[in-house]
Fold this protein.
Amino acid sequence: MADVKSDDVKILDHYSLNANGLHVEVDIKQTGAEFVPNYEVTFPGIGIATKLLLLSLRSEMVTMTPIDPSRIQIKEYLDDLTKRVQSASKILIDKYLPGTTGDTKDVLSAYMVNMMIGFGDLEAPIADEHLEEIAVNGSREPIWVFHKRIGWCKSNIKPPNEESIYDQAESIGRRVGREINNLAPLMDAELADGSRVNATLFPISQVGNTITIRKFERNPWTMPALVKNGTVSPQIAGLIWLCIQNEISLLISGGTASGKTSFLNASSIFFPPTRRIISVEETKELTLPKLYQWISMLTRQPNPEGKGQVTLYDLMINALRQRPDIMLVGEVRTAKDAETLFEAIHTGHAVYGTIHADNAQDTVIRMTNPPIEVPKIMMNAIGGMIVAFRHRTRGIRRVLEFGEILKTGDANVLYRWNMRNDTFAQLSDMTRLSETIALYGGLTRKEIDDEVAEKATILNWMTKYNVIDVDNAGFVVSNYYKNREKVLDIVKNDVPYTDKLFK
Ligand SMILES: Nc1ncnc2c1ncn2[C@@H]1O[C@H](COP(=O)(O)OP(=O)(O)O)[C@@H](O)[C@H]1O
Ligand SMILES: [Mg+2]
């Protein structure tokens, strides 16, 4: 074992961010004595004593500017409220911290705004784009955060007591019309920015009251971005592109947080811009290129009286009446979801969806056994499956398998990730998939290989010139569909990307 002195401190990262006008410094450190890194936030300009003083002014603030939480979601109300809280806070600062001026006053005021109408101490991690998850596990321990590169870290933010967590959960709920209390101690809610919040109360949760926030990803994944970070090889990505171009339906499976939905999003840049796309999801996760004709639909939970529920199944049925060419299904869970998915494929739509399963074989097992239980023979309506995988200890995500579905409904794995040397090995040659592509696209076996190679080259070019955001990536692919020769010419001559290139 390495010799680790307890006073060893390794800085893993340092950056600053802006949390609603409040300047925040973030330091991530690994100390020799600890098992997980520390995530430390500091607010330059606000000392501990000042912070405590400001916190003690809460009730006086509420008296000065009453807040109606049910209207906080309304932008006009929030803007106006923010202004009122700002001026009230300045009056209080003058009263209790006389002599505070200019910038310092603004900083203190921003802190109070976050405390009164924002998420208080959670506002800084919420504003941190490097974080995926924020977890409040009762008041006995500090808040944990999941950093995209570093993984779980223990923060220096600690809830003062159980009540404060309860209050916070309640106020989050009130904003989005959900309730949490002793009779309904579990809450799932979605914030206006698309982040997902789950809260549970003691004693259902034994550690104390909890809040878990899964942050909304603002920069959606695209295929060149996944090629760039090694999630998938350009060849497999090229084959997926060819499948999508030929309207072949695909399923993406994987474990929790393995990257299924991200991969679905990443694949969407291959949709021809001439198609009408409808997506159905439980929470808004997908972001497609702006140039598409795209209708995004979300499910809704029942209200406290049990009314108004809209299920994924309802949305799928409804989507089919809106004449889509392509349907995206967030996550298939029930027998009805699966039936509708196959119904959609059989009536001539290309369907792309995710499902929870560990590998290609397991995906077929999941689909053909209770509770989903579709007849195995129906599976062959799906052309291929992608299995997403998260390697926990190495903190990387990879396409574990890419498989075709045989006529019998079984999976035939074509590619599998080799963990040892981080490569994608070809296990077998496609049979059914090439037949289907031949049928729809009229391509010979050799032409299929050439097309895959061509697409892989384009993806490499996109990766090289960092065309990895959803709009630019979608733009390049759309240009390829419209004027293939021109795009190939640019790629062959290795011309650097600009959005003027195709004009
Ligand atoms: N290939 C990838 N490389 C790096 N991070 C990824 C990758 N795929 C997903 N992520 C990140 O992992 C988290 C979970 O991804 P998500 O697609 O929601 O998983 P799932 O749908 O399997 O639950 C997100 O924060 C996402 O940004
Ligand atoms: Mg998902």
In short: The chain has two domains: 12-214, 223-450.
